[in-house]
Predict the structure.
Amino acid sequence: MRDVVIAGIGQTPVAEHWEISLRELAFQAMEAALDDAAGLRPSALYVGNMLSASLSHQAHLGTLLADFAGFTSIEAAAIEAAGASGAMALRIGAMAVASGQVDAVMVLGVEKLSDQVTGEVEAALAMGTDTDYEAEQGMTGTAQAAMLAQRYLHEFEVPEHALGGFPLTAHANGANNPNAMFQRAVKPEAYAKAGMVSAPLNMFDIAPNADGAAAVLLTRPDLLPPKFAHPLVEITGSSAVTDTLALHDRPDPLAFNAARLSIERACADAGIMPGDADFFELFDAFSIYTALSMEAAGFAERGKGWELAQNGFIQLDGEMPIATLGGLKARGFPGGAAGVYQTVEAALQLRGQAGKGQIAGAKTALVQSLGGPASTAVTHVLTRLDEKS
Amino acid sequence: MDIPRHWRLKKQRYALMGEVCGHCDAKLFPPRDICPECGEEAKTLFQFSGRGEVYSHTTVYDPPQGYESQAPYTLAMVKLEEGPLVTAQLTDLGEQEAEIGMPVEMVTRLLRSATDERGLLVYGYKFRPAVAG
């Protein structure tokens, strides 16, 4: 990727926002990003959203949100790739800026998952599976993850509670994030006693559905004044990869091949190795996804990803910190907005603005979002601009 | 209502009708028109035996809309003896616990209840523990 920088970032707290509508939530994040970008105006808006048509009975989100934000006459559209919607909107926005067609793009992720009751939300989320052959059998996203975990524990003889270190790390980090849904550390004993949701996954293995909006304003660095209000973060690598939509259509469901390929391609694009990154914002919608994503990225051998939850590797002062501001698990899972939240959090780290969760001297970030069980994988490499040679 | 969508899937739902690739003999379920093994066209119908074993399983306590009356239910990925994996519920388990490797066979059962008085009752394949012999 060439010459695309993040000039502004914004986010709302992730929560059950009963009192705020979809459009108001979206506008709060966009307004924050505009303020942060010192008045830069977008000429296009790309919206990452997964379920507004079914849960809010609202399609045509690009135009609605451009209209509501007062971006008169600009280009706008919504992008859908299940849980990777926000990350895909970021990639489309970055490509639009890199192409020269658009000078400044607002990339917005927004999702409202708490307006409907659980059964309706589960049914809507299950539309991201193969509806005819998965959802119709009663499959849900959680059940897919649970079956992967069951097989993983069986195939690799993993000790009981071994995946628990991932959510415990996420919750410890979420304590440093004022926008996180959960800002309290969780004790190992609480994990061990937690109620089963979809065996072998308990409530702490599963990121909570919530509402939220996050935004980043992209532009080319030569369009900004030389003395800018804050450090700039450059998008140096980008890749999106698909796998089979249905989990059962893969010869080896425990291999997150799209996650592996998108890491390889984004890193090649940026000219780095995955291990060169200072931290990894991965898609911890389920604890098993963290193990499989770490294996796919090459940080652990196949079947050994769970060990990284035991040895400090993923903690803030470890070799490859993950979920540095709580991840999906503690910050919360706002559907198609997740990828933009991950990007905003990575930008805060690279700008040195992550508060108590700051990783000292962070210069390069890996950010990955998944749609379904890595049926879509979108990876970006972000680099602090003044550190780039 | 989705009547045409469910009607189109009747061969798959009631008879596990998939395809066999005429080029590399791979057996495919669900049917897809390009063989994932060799990349050639695959359009010859093939009926699966309905026998297989459990590849993985879970129990769903928070069901999606339309599945409430069945919850908690056991969902599995079943490895069919001809090769493919298929997602389906396990049924008729009685006192038996689902286990990876358990031999199972296809049966036809109610998949989904009507969500309103004009809704559809959807029937299709589930798998039960294989009857001995």
The interface with chain B takes residues 118-120, 122-123, 126, 130, 132-140, 142-143, 146-148, 150-151, 154, 196-201, 244, 246-250, 253 of chain A (CB under 8 Å).
